[in-house]
Amino acid sequence: GALSTTKAPIVTAGPTASTKRVTVSWTGADVPLQVLTAGFHSWQVQRRTDNGPWTTVWVSTTRPSMTLDLARGHRYEFRTAAVDKVGNWGSWSTVSTTLGRTIGAISTGR
Q: pTM to 2 decimals?
């Protein structure tokens, strides 16, 4: 079946003091069950903020990463699931990051 591995987010300075730039990347493959595989097709990518509902970023993509400017003071989770060419879905792979609030020019977290 299809396999997806979501890597830990890379967090850098954002365009404003109240944001951070977050890059999330993932890998995937169609793992052989016995001899043959259908072949990797794509990933579905979702995110959520502060334990809210999951929202779909991409229903189907072959892009291996995304970069977003996100507001500080929130917890963000990202998950990916891979699908092979015949529609077999793998399980979700989830990572998270918490962006600390800014107090003046001092950050209280990553």
A: 0.84
